[in-house]
């Protein structure tokens, strides 16, 4: 359907956080906002994105988009809202019949925008987009009417800057809130290589009969060729049933040559969870390949966070040194105390002293689990950086640990078969010697079946002999997968309880961005008190070291 409307045979369709057409890569992004909703089907939601945004390729002057690169996030959002208004109007003008097809989506989006705002800037952007969905010509805000109609990209740029200048006198326009997206920097670099399409004065007109015939053709094509539509997520091309982690290494420099031991994407481990919600789910274990070029990037990140890790290491080493070198008095054997007067006066025979003989080894094992579902797209970098710090700490202290990421492959789901994948970035055996370099290739994709993943990792920890065992999970929302919404909450909670019964502590690092209060309460119910809440993934590199230092200190004292 997308290729037909865009008249582009090679357009690729992907699922991202926001929906937009990327002219640089010829990719039409659909929003994962529509996934696993109760009020609309996934297909209807994706169709809504396509029908309201497909004219972008014909009417936008992408060559001018680079002018927005240096503007504030707020100005960019106004600009993209104005451009979205243009593409909606063109779509409805050229194909009036779609008004009934996009109606349910408009209603859902308006409900979303009418939710309470955290700032005046957010309130303005939400109200602005409600006016767009209502097909209004202006938007009333703070006793002022704002025009929302433009006829070219140049007009949208000019009006967005004027609006920001006016509003900045009355409200703070410093806001991270986002409704639309566009890779402005990538467009700037692409301009040098290609003359991106200019604004069109008018789309090709069609008679109502032609429109009806075309829409029938679109629906027929969608139904007939759904399995061959090249619908991909960040994991790669669904037509080849393969994801990016499993593709051939173009550099021919498999890290096996450097004894990293990650191997190939064999997916030969199929873990089955007996819990009813996971009856049709199967788990494949993958050891991702990496390129040698990633080592330089990893070393840079390692150096950036080395001082943070070093501080924790020194604190723990001091505690270990104290315990090892401390002297125990009043013992019945060992060396005679320098001053045994006290015990002799009381008639005690414990007049000897003995040096502590404790080992330097810390009796513990850790597993770090990163949710790499679609919603984690903007949070994976923060999680990755936190994992790099923890690997540095645990490796230096010679504490075995395992680092994985996981997702359910949405586009491979079939009836009674829900494939999930664990990517082993580090396993226990190699954790004392090597680095999880493959974390640099981690990408958001699919959904998250947290309970099943927890049980798999618990099984591995249960086989180990360490006294202290912990699982640290990174996530930004509730578990969500095929037939795994409300049941997923129950399943994950029960998995956490099972871990506790087996002496394994499960701690959730929860990124609380754009979550409703009931979501936060549900997360607290799943993990009890073992939840560390951060407002932004960037904060992980600050709170996670503190958590690790506290856990390690409690083990030793």
TrEMBL record:
<dbReference type="InterPro" id="IPR002035">
    <property type="entry name" value="VWF_A"/>
</dbReference>
<feature type="compositionally biased region" description="Basic and acidic residues">
    <location>
        <begin position="200"/>
        <end position="226"/>
    </location>
</feature>
<feature type="region of interest" description="Disordered">
    <location>
        <begin position="200"/>
        <end position="248"/>
    </location>
</feature>
<feature type="domain" description="VWFA">
    <location>
        <begin position="365"/>
        <end position="551"/>
    </location>
</feature>
<dbReference type="InterPro" id="IPR036465">
    <property type="entry name" value="vWFA_dom_sf"/>
</dbReference>
<protein>
    <submittedName>
        <fullName>VWA domain-containing protein</fullName>
    </submittedName>
</protein>
<feature type="compositionally biased region" description="Basic and acidic residues">
    <location>
        <begin position="239"/>
        <end position="248"/>
    </location>
</feature>
<dbReference type="InterPro" id="IPR051928">
    <property type="entry name" value="NorD/CobT"/>
</dbReference>
């Amino acid at each position: 359907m997308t290729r037909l409307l865009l008249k582009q045979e090679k357009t690729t369709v992907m699922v991202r956080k926001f929906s937009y057409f990327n002219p640089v890569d010829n990719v039409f992004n659909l929003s994962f906002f529509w996934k696993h909703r109760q009020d609309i089907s996934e297909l209807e939601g994706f169709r809504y994105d396509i029908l309201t945004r497909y004219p972008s390729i014909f009417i936008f002057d992408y060559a001018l988009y680079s002018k927005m690169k240096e503007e504030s996030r707020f100005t960019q959002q106004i600009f993209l809202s104005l451009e979205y208004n243009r593409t909606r109007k063109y779509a409805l003008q050229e194909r009036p019949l779609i008004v009934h097809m996009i109606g349910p989506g408009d209603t859902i989006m308006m409900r979303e925008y009418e939710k309470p705002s955290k700032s005046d800037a957010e309130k303005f952007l939400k109200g602005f987009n409600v006016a767009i969905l209502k097909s209004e010509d202006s938007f009333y805000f703070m006793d002022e009417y704002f025009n929302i109609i433009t006829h070219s990209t140049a007009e949208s740029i000019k009006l967005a800057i004027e609006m920001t200048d006016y509003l900045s006198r009355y409200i703070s326009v410093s806001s991270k809130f986002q409704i639309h997206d566009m890779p402005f920097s990538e467009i700037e670099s692409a301009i040098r290589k290609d003359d991106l399409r200019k604004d069109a004065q008018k789309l090709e007109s069609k008679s109502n009969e032609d429109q009806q015939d075309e829409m029938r053709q679109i629906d027929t094509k969608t139904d007939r060729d759904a399995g061959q539509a090249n619908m991909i997520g960040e994991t790669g091309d669904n037509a080849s049933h393969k994801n990016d982690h499993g593709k051939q290494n173009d550099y021919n420099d498999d890290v096996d040559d450097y004894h990293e031991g990650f191997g190939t994407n064999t997916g030969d481990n199929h873990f089955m969870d007996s819990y009813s919600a996971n009856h049709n789910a199967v788990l494949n274990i993958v050891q991702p390949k990496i390129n040698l070029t990633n080592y330089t990037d990893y070393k840079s990140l390692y150096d950036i966070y080395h001082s943070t890790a070093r501080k924790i290491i020194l604190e723990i080493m001091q505690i270990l040194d104290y315990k090892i070198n401390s002297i125990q008095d009043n013992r019945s054997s060992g060396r005679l105390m320098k001053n045994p007067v006290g015990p002799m006066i009381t008639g005690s025979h414990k007049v000897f002293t003995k040096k502590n003989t404790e080992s330097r080894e810390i009796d513990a094992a850790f597993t770090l689990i990163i949710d790499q579902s679609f919603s984690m797209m903007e949070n994976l970098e923060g999680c990755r950086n936190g994992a790099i710090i923890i690997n540095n700490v645990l490796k230096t202290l010679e504490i075995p640990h395992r680092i994985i990421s996981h997702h359910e492959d949405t586009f491979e789901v079939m009836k009674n078969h829900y494939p999930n994948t664990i990517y082993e970035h580090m396993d226990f055996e190699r954790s004392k010697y090597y680095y999880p370099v493959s974390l640099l290739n981690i990408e958001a994709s699919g959904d998250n079946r947290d309970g099943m993943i927890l049980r798999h990792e618990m099984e591995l920890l249960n086989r180990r002999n360490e006294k202290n065992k912990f699982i640290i999970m990174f996530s930004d929302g509730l578990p969500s997968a095929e037939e795994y919404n409300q049941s997923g909450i129950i399943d994950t909670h029960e998995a956490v309880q099972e871990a506790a019964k087996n002496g394994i502590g499960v701690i959730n690092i929860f990124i609380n961005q754009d979550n409703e209060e009931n979501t936060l309460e549900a997360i607290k119910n799943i993990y009890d008190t073992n939840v560390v809440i951060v407002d932004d993934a960037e904060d992980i590199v600050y709170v996670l070291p503190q958590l690790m230092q506290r856990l390690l200190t409690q083990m030793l004292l």
